[in-house]
Every structure is written in structure tokens, then in C-alpha cells.
Amino acid sequence: MKITKIANRQLLFILFMMRTTVTIAFLPVLTSADAAQDAWVAALFTFLGSAVIVILVAALGAKYPKQTIVEYSTALVSTWPGKVVSAVVLWALFTIAATDVRIYGEVLVTGFLVQTPLAVIIGGMVFVAAVAAWQGIEVIARVADTLFPLFVLMLVLSLGMVVPLVEIRNLQPVMARGLLPVVRGSITPTAIAAQMLVLTMLIPAVTEPNRALATALWALAGSSLVLVVVAVVTVGILGPEQASRSVFPFYVLTRSIEVTEFVQRIEVLPMFAWGFGLFIGIATLIYSLAYGLAQVLGLADYRPLVFPLAALQTTFSVQAYKDVFELLRFFKPRVVGPYILAWFILSLFPLWAAHFIRTVWGSRRQGGSDGQGRVWGQILAVFSFASYRPLCDYQHRLLGSA
Amino acid sequence: MKNKLKALKILVFILIVVTLSFRGWSSSRDIEKRSFVLTQGVDTAPDNTFSVTYSLANPQALGNEEGGGSKGKESAIIYKTRCRNLWQGHHFIQARTEHPLFLGHVQTLVLGEELARQGIGRVVDVFMRAAETRLKTWLVVAEGEAGKILEVAPKPEKLAPLYIGRALEMEDYLNVIPLLRVAEFGIRLRNPGEHPVAPMVKAGDDELALTGLALFKDDKMVGKLNHEEMHYFFLTVAGKGHMFKRVETSAGDTFSYEISNVKRRVRLHRTGDQVSFSVLLAVEGNIVEAVTERSLRDMEFLASVEQVITEALAKDCRALLTKIQTEFQVDSFGFGAMVRGRYPKLWAQLDWDQDFPTVPIKITLDATIRRLGMVSE
């Protein structure tokens, strides 16, 4: 399949918008655990954890700059294990896209379009994103170029207007309960960094793939900065108790803003920004999913898969979570942590191991170390599957009741 | 063939869009088909029920050239009902109106005094939980029944339900009271170490007056301050200080002092497991009335007048503090939040509601005269 090229700048915009929309939507640093007034510290920890994920994803992709994960996983761990690994990544992209758009739909139904069926809102957004995905990643990137300044402007406006209302005493005491609540609060937003798995499909499309890791880290840094500011502002104004019990704290915060007598109810500004960001994110995810699935199935073109996948995604998004409580329960550290950890254990871990073995043994000849690297990768893939459950149990014990 | 297929696809797409649009039209809710609730009043009623009063805008009565609405038509329509919960009351009133009720423009939420004393947590929760309501709605407590407040039609205001909200915004603009809305009330209700307050209003024959401040312990009203005490409260708590103070010197000279600016600083002190506070108020103001034979150009005399003003204001502030600490025993000032923020381990040991009445709080006030008006003596 022909790969169109996008600039690193456009990749940065895409990743920034994709990450920022979800993290500020329901502010997982605050609502997923008990970080309370230390949510902004949890946001700092989130950056560190997410950076590890980005490095895991992007560094491996940069070593195979002209190949997607479907292609280099096949080369690393042989055909069928490679397809299994690719399937895990594609499933991850599918789930992420469905969950992101479900959150957006829930906010719209809760706060704005209370009578509109959820499927209509989700279907509308997914359809538009699918049209963009059908056009290709270059079109999505150009749209991101256009929407990024608007996205940033609306965020800046919404945050800038409320900063004077922040009360420092709501952010105190700082770290009085120790590190554990902060770590618990950082697990869910770190897990959400699994969105960066799109890099496994996008790195070959970037004009400078060797700089893809740096680009992704810059996007992560920008979105983490936004997350810290939003956490500070939200807790500083609403207080830790009111903010923690809100389903969508940032939305509640913007409802509390009154600039002048005639400028009120400006929660539409962040909703616009969110809609733009979500569109870019969903379009990118559908594109990556269709492209990857086409490669797994050996198809000549990914386009015939776009709309069927969009339909599947809409259905999954509506059906996967019974209600908003189930959605929020999914984002509890105890649930989302092990689940997303599994994606990485079952996909990137064996690939990294195989790559490491190939590099150490230094031979790319057929049947030599290359073959041994594949064997070891297969062994490690099986080990990953087997070790998943014990790792989950250990994580549960570590997290306690989180 | 390709072109025909493309044309067919476009036609199908257009048909789908048009069909969906028609469906949307049938359930549209245009602005002309909404009933705007401008003020909401809630009182207690027998048998553990609520008495809910809505004041709805009557657009047909507005916009008349003579002003004040069409003849014979009120600018606002009052609906009352009894109900077990607020949303039930909403539906009872909805059943009596032509158009769907819209809560997105509620300007003021008026709560009856008896309801306030019993607890208003349920009412605040409804407002915080609903997406349609404005969190910037003013929350006031009525002296007596809330329904009476909604029935008053003040002469200066064409749209009576807007009067309270605009009057309170003017008080905020004049630096008399801060913004005290549902959002602020709900936030303070949840934050440990502080308790909310709400303005009190009283209905006359054709006027409404801001009469004081209701103090809440959690969601129950435990006391009220009169108008003057309210001024001193906000002077101490929020550095809001547009008020007038009349003082008399020992020589019989009288002055009226208008506070124009306040700088406030609160310091928390800790000695072992005991905390204390010192509140420093630097007040600036102008002499707006002087009855004296002496010249205010005399700097010594001016300093002595400043001293008299300082002592008078400090005395009133201390009296208010004592009243709130000993009589109402509620930390409406928010001092507990400071302790929670600075000394969290100590906070965990304290029972602030029990300890606050005996916490030493020292108020130090320094008044300065900036101007004498248009007369220099």
C-alpha cells in the first residue's frame, strides 16, 4: 500500500490533541483514585510513566522506520506470532477509539443534548472521522494543522478566565498523605497513554522517522503541562471534595465561570476544543486500525475496511459499557491498569526481546541468529501470555482497594 | 456507469440527511416554545414536603413602548405547587404550562428561612447535579417565606424576578458583598474547614431589601447577621469594605467615615497542639461628613480622628467575631481551612466544630483617612 507522508509537526499536533482531549475530559488524575488536592502532582508522575510508554512504543518503531508494527513484528517473531502481536495492537486501537468517543458522547448527553440518543452522537462523530480516515493520514494531518491553533486558543481562553479564581488553600496540604495516593492517581492517565500505540502505524508515514520519538515526547510534555494546569485550576476553584465527586470536573468548572453579565455558560468553548481533538484522535485511530488490519489480512488497500470498522466501533462504543458508571469503573486503576498493561506485555515485550536478541547476536542472516531471535521472541511471547495473570494479581495487591 | 453510480451514492446520501433532518424538526424546541424560569423559591410544607414557587418570564408583557409591560399583563407569572422533591414539583408545574420549562436562566434561588434551618443540602445537590441549571444562580435566604419574595414586584424593575439578582450584583459591584452563588455555596459546603453563608432578603409591599447574612453550619442555618454585621463580616473575611461608620470623639465631634479599600492578612500561629489567628486589617477611607469646630488640616487632630475610627471599627469587628464564635459557634470565616492546609496532621487530631469557639483570634485594625471630599477642612 502506498504510504503518504506527514510532517513531524503534524504528528505532534495529532498526538497532543489526542492525548489532551481524553485526559482533561474526566480528569482521571482526580476522579480515578484519591489524589484529591495532590492531583497536579499525580499529573507530574503521569508524565514520567507515560514517557516510558512512549519510549517503549516509539523507540522500537524508529528502529524500523519504513515498517509498521505488522511488518516488523512478522520479521521479528515470525509470521503467525507476529500477526497475534499485531492483533493485540489493533484491538488496543479499536478499544481506545471506542472508549474515547463514548466518553465524549456521555458528556454531550449529560450536559447538552440530553434527549439525543447516545448512538446518534457517537455515530455522527465516528462517521465524520471515518470520512477523514478514508481520505488518508495526510488529510487528517492537514486538518490537525488547521484545528490545532483553535484547540489551543479555546483551552487558553477557558483556563485563562478562571485562573484568578483559584484559591491556593484548596491545593493544600501538599503531599500530606504521602506518595501512594499520588501514584494511584497517576495510574489511569498513564494507562491512557496507550493511545501512543498509534505510533506503531504512523512512524513510517512521518517524513523524519528518526525524530518520531522526540516528537512524541514533546507532544506528551505539552499535554502533561495542560493536564497539570487543568488539575491545579480545577482543584483550586472547586476544592478537592467537590472536584473529586464530579463526573466531569473540568466541565463543572467551566459552568462556574461568568466573565461578565452577558458572557456566561462558556462551557461550550472547551467542548468545541474537545470535539476538534476527538475528531483528530478518532480519525487517526480508525486510519491506523484500518491500515494495520489491511496489512494483517494482506489487502492491497485499507479503504474498504474504514467504514465497516467505523460501524463496528460505533456499535462497540455503545454496547461495551452499560452506563456511565461502568465507564468510570473501567477507568479505576485496579481495572484499567492490568488491562492496558496486558496490551504491552502481549505486544511490545516480545518484540523488544526479539529485537534485543537480534541486535546482541548481531546477525541478520537467515537461519543464524535471526532465526534464533525469532525463536526467542516466540518463547517470550508465550511467557508473556503466561505471566499476565500473576502480574495482574501482584498489581492488585500493590494498589490495594484503588 | 461509474458516473451513474457516483450520482446514485450522492442522491442516497442526500436522502438520508434530509430524512434525519425531518426527524429532528419534529422534536425541535425553539426558543419561542420554552418557558423560562427566572426565579425559584423553595419552602418547607407540612408532611415533609416542599412548597415550590416558580416565577416564569412572560415575553408578551415585555417590549411595550410605554414600558412596564402590556396593560393588564404581568411581566412574570407565578406558579406554586407542593411536592415531595424538587423535580416532582417541576413536573407538577410543567403540567400547567404550555411550553417546556427551562431552568438554564434561573437568576435567583430563594430558600425559606424555615427550610434553611432544617437543611438545604437536598436543594443544593439538585442544582449541582443538573446540567441545565446555572451554577451562577444567586442563592438567598428569605426572611419568612420564599414564595412571598417571588410575589413582590418592585417598581424600578420591569422584570421583577431579575430584581434580586441585579440588586445583589450591584452590591458586589459596589464592593459590599462578594459573589455568593450556588457554585460558591456548594463548594464551601463540601470543603472541610469552612462553612457557607448566604444573603438574606426581606419582602416589603413593593420592594425587596437585602437585610443581612445567613450563617450555615454544613447545610443548616444556625444564625443570621444584620445588615451592619454583614458588612463587618465581609470586611474581616473577604476584605470587602464599602461601608460607612459614624464615630464621635471625646470632644463631641462627629465624623462619618466611608471605607473605600481594605487590605486583609490572616496569620495562623501554632503553639504545640493549639492554634491561634491574627487578622490584620489595613483600612483606607474618606471623611464624608464632619461636624466639628476644628480644622482637619491639623495633622494631629486628623491622627486622633483616625485613632477614634480605628478603635470604633476594631471594636465592632471584635464584637462580631465574639458573636459568631460564642453564639453561633460556626467557622464561617474559613479559618479551619487554613489549619487543614498548613498543619494536616494537627487538623486530623482536632474536632474543629468543637474547638473553634475557643480558638484565640486577634483582630488588629488600622484605619487611614485618605480624602476629605470637596471640602478641605
Number of helices, counting only DSSP H or I runs of 4 residues or more of chain B: 12
Q: Which structural class is indicated by helix and strand composition of chain B?
A: alpha/beta
Give the total of beta strands of chain B.
13
Mean pLDDT of chain B: 86
Number of individual domains of chain A? 1
Task: Name the CATH architecture of chain A.
Answer: Up-down Bundle
- Amount of helix of chain A: over 70%
Q: Beta-sheet strand percentage of chain B?
A: 25-35%
Strand order, main sheet of chain A: write it out.
1-2
In terms of DSSP E residues, the strand content of chain A is: under 5%
Provide the domain count of chain B.
2
Describe it for me?
The complex is a heterodimer of chains A (402) and B (377). Chain A is mainly α. Chain A has one domain (8-332): Amino acid/polyamine transporter I. Chain A contains 16 helices and 2 strands. Chain A has helices spanning 8-25, 28-31, 39-63, 69-77, 79-111, 118-135, 137-162, 180-192, 199-202, 212-245, 249-255, 268-297, 303-320, 324-330, 333-361, 369-399; strands at 258-260, 263-264. Chain A has a two-stranded antiparallel sheet with strand order 1-2. In chain A, helix 5 packs antiparallel against helix 12 (268-297). The radius of gyration of chain A is 21 Å and the shape is globular. The model of chain A has no long low-confidence stretch (mean pLDDT 86). Chain B has 12 helices and 13 strands. Helix content of chain B is 36%, strand content 31%. Chain B folds into 2 domains: 31-225, no CATH class; 243-371, 2-Layer Sandwich (GMP Synthetase, Chain A, domain 3). In chain B, strand 1 and strand 2 form a beta hairpin. The model of chain B is unreliable at 65-72 (pLDDT under 50). Chain B has helices at residues 2-26, 86-94, 113-118, 121-129, 146-151, 161-173, 182-190, 227-237, 299-328, 335-342, 344-349, 352-355; strands at 35-45, 49-57, 76-83, 101-102, 108-112, 138-142, 197-203, 208-217, 220-226, 244-248, 254-271, 274-291, 361-371. With 377 residues, chain B is of the alpha/beta class. Chain B is elongated, with a radius of gyration of 27 Å. The chains are: A mainly alpha (402), B alpha/beta (377). Chain A binds chain B through residues 110-112, 114-115, 169-170, 172-173, 176-177, 237-242, 245, 252, 255-256, 258, 261, 264-265, and chain B through 27, 104, 128, 131-132, 134-136, 169, 183, 186-188, 190-192, 334, 337-338, 340-345.
